[in-house]
UniProtKB/TrEMBL annotation:
<keyword id="KW-0812">Transmembrane</keyword>
<keyword id="KW-0813">Transport</keyword>
<dbReference type="GO" id="GO:0005375">
    <property type="term" value="F:copper ion transmembrane transporter activity"/>
</dbReference>
<keyword id="KW-1133">Transmembrane helix</keyword>
<keyword id="KW-0186">Copper</keyword>
<feature type="transmembrane region" description="Helical">
    <location>
        <begin position="24"/>
        <end position="44"/>
    </location>
</feature>
<comment type="similarity">
    <text>Belongs to the copper transporter (Ctr) (TC 1.A.56) family. SLC31A subfamily.</text>
</comment>
<keyword id="KW-0472">Membrane</keyword>
<keyword id="KW-0406">Ion transport</keyword>
<feature type="transmembrane region" description="Helical">
    <location>
        <begin position="110"/>
        <end position="129"/>
    </location>
</feature>
<keyword id="KW-0187">Copper transport</keyword>
<dbReference type="Pfam" id="PF04145">
    <property type="entry name" value="Ctr"/>
</dbReference>
<feature type="transmembrane region" description="Helical">
    <location>
        <begin position="85"/>
        <end position="104"/>
    </location>
</feature>
<protein>
    <recommendedName>
        <fullName>Copper transport protein</fullName>
    </recommendedName>
</protein>
<dbReference type="InterPro" id="IPR007274">
    <property type="entry name" value="Cop_transporter"/>
</dbReference>
<dbReference type="GO" id="GO:0005886">
    <property type="term" value="C:plasma membrane"/>
</dbReference>
Length: 145
């Protein structure tokens, strides 16, 4: 039966029926995997935002005719929606979204150790990769961003 409240223990089923921990070693390796994937999530989010910044700064867009009068009608960039840079950005966004949702589902196992491993991994990843992002605008509404 699935837990509906937080519990502490080494027996956890994570994401798949085949990913069950029974021993403390399996549980510790599972927590390490959650931590590493959380740090990797922050790394990928940093790469995606930097790629977006790089591709938007390299695209030469003409200034809007009146940026105050028609902010919603002016296209964001002159680049084609099917340009390689926009396609690569979409792929990175999809990959990062998938990782974020998998982390969310891992937390929904309601195991306290998994919860702490993911949160600490996200915090450490943010500290390592994203804490110096003063010039990058974060546009991700996901709670785990």
């Amino acid at each position: 039966m699935m837990h509906m409240t937080f519990y502490w223990g080494r027996q956890v089923t994570l994401l798949l029926d085949s990913w069950k921990t029974k021993t403390w070693t399996e549980y510790a390796l599972t927590l390490c995997a959650c931590f590493v994937v959380s740090v990797f999530y922050q790394y990928m989010e940093d790469r995606r935002l930097r790629f977006r910044l790089l591709s938007s700064s390299s695209a030469a867009a003409s200034p809007p005719p009146s940026s105050v009068a028609t902010p919603l009608l002016y296209p964001k960039s002159a680049a084609s929606p099917w340009s390689p840079a926009r396609f690569a950005g979409a792929v990175l966004f999809g990959l990062n979204s998938a990782i974020g949702y998998l982390l969310m589902l891992a937390i929904m196992s309601f195991n306290g150790g998994v919860f702490i491993a993911v949160i600490v991994g996200l915090a450490i990843g943010y500290l390592l990769f994203r804490s110096t992002d003063q010039d990058i605008v974060v546009d991700n509404p996901c709670a785990c961003a």
